[in-house]
Design a protein that fits this description.
single chain; 403 residues; alpha+beta; hypothetical protein PF0899 fold; six-stranded mixed β-sheet; 8 helices
Length: 403
């Protein structure tokens, strides 16, 4: 007797793919969810912000008939905010475009719609990372010619993905090291903070070289770690010349305690007269804070009896140190071992519009059929001009090397 088996009957059995497509990717971007609320539309390539930097000091009490104060003047500066330009390139063949055009009848969606939605999520992740660190992904601590790069302790490994194209460059100049231009990540070891790159290997020097996304050096938005700084110039203004244009920075915070955090918050309030509206950190720093809740309940308040839910569904603790409760936000894209204490109204997102397609004659998906190398495929480009700017720096704090 010959049995009919699944293997033999495979040719006549149907396959039922259960839609919709379920994404396995974490594309949450809490920093964007909060900061893009304070968006200002601009026309042109840049914005100018007038700033009052110093008060008129021609004042003071005098005795009767004494000489009056010498005239002084208020010091003003203009902050120049230039837009950065973000792009996402997509390409699909003509056959796949035509065969998915009818949606559910032949596929789980039109390929052009699926690709566009996925690219918008990719660009949002790019922006979320860049809102923190600008072009820098991580520093390199490896020495010698290698294909496995050991990244520094501050590296956030959640951002690295297999297939990502990166440059290994000199941090100070942006010049790529030999064999380090446009290399592809072939493996990510999040436990050991290592990435493996394609190619013949690169010769790197610890503390000198960094990893960036391909061709993004000095092309991204201003990152918060640049904005919240006491040395780096921002918008054309040097804090060495204008001390009020400096954030509070503690580069060696050390072991976390609530008391030490409150000292840093107090410094911000004294310098700016403004109370922070958010604290951003990684999950480890939030957990260290959470561990103080039992030992130091007088310092904290859990909003409405439990974690607060922000727009977008993100859940957060709250910190209360004498003023209004401050949301404490854990973000997987935040630099490890650090906290940003921000007065968010002093941060502005400048952009003419949301993500949009480059179009020709109203068409976004353009055929690649011109010239001698014509191919039956279609290309599309998503773009957005955007910049993260600051109207004040002394209302923020940056805390580093937190253990």
């Amino acid at each position: 007797m010959a049995d009919q088996t699944l293997l033999l009957a495979n040719a006549i059995l149907k396959e039922d793919y259960l839609g919709p497509i379920r994404s396995q990717l974490n594309v949450s971007t809490p920093v964007l969810q909060r900061l893009v609320k304070n968006t200002r539309d601009i026309v042109g390539k840049e914005a100018w912000i007038p700033l009052e930097m110093a008060l008129n000091q021609g004042s003071g009490a005098r005795r009767e008939s004494a000489i009056l104060p010498s005239a002084g003047r208020t010091d003003w500066k203009e902050a120049k905010v230039e837009l950065a330009h973000y792009y996402g390139a997509m390409s699909v063949t003509g056959p796949v475009m035509r065969q998915t055009a009818k949606g559910d009848r032949g596929s789980f969606g039109r390929i052009v719609d699926l690709e566009a939605k996925a690219m918008k999520r990719t660009l949002a992740l790019n922006l979320a990372h860049d809102f923190y660190l600008g072009h820098k992904l991580a520093g390199v601590t490896t020495q010698g010619p290698v294909t496995v790069l050991q990244l520094d302790s501050l590296a956030n490994m959640e951002y690295f993905e297999v297939g990502m194209i990166v440059d290994v460059i000199v941090a100070a100049t942006g010049v790529a090291v030999a064999n380090g231009d446009s290399v592809t990540i072939s493996a990510v070891n999040r436990t050991l903070s290592q990435i493996t790159i394609s190619g013949a290997g690169v010769t790197v020097v610890a503390g000198t070289h960094i990893v960036v996304r391909e061709d993004t050096y000095n092309a991204t938005v201003n990152g918060l770690f640049t904005i919240v700084d006491d040395v780096l110039s921002l918008h054309g203004i040097d804090p060495a010349l204008f001390p009020r244009w400096a954030a509070s920075v503690n580069a060696a915070f050390g072991a976390f305690t609530v008391s030490k955090l409150q000292i840093e918050i107090d410094r911000v309030v004294v310098a700016s007269g403004k109370y922070p509206t958010a604290i951003y950190g990684d999950y480890t720093r939030q957990r260290k804070y959470f561990e103080t809740l039992t030992a130091n309940p007088q310092y904290v308040a859990i909003g409405n009896g439990g974690p607060k839910t922000m727009d977008g569904g993100f859940r957060t603790l709250e910190y209360s140190g004498g003023g209004s409760p401050i949301p404490w936000i854990a973000d997987r894209l935040m630099q490890s071992g650090s906290l940003l204490v921000l007065h968010e109204p002093d941060l502005q997102v400048y952009t003419p519009a949301d993500f949009a397609f480059l179009e020709i004659g109203g068409d976004a998906w353009l055929p690649d059929i011109l010239g001698s190398s014509a191919v039956d495929r279609y290309k599309a480009i998503l773009w957005r001009d955007i910049q993260l700017g600051a109207m004040a720096r002394n209302s923020h704090a940056k805390l580093l090397a937190i253990t």
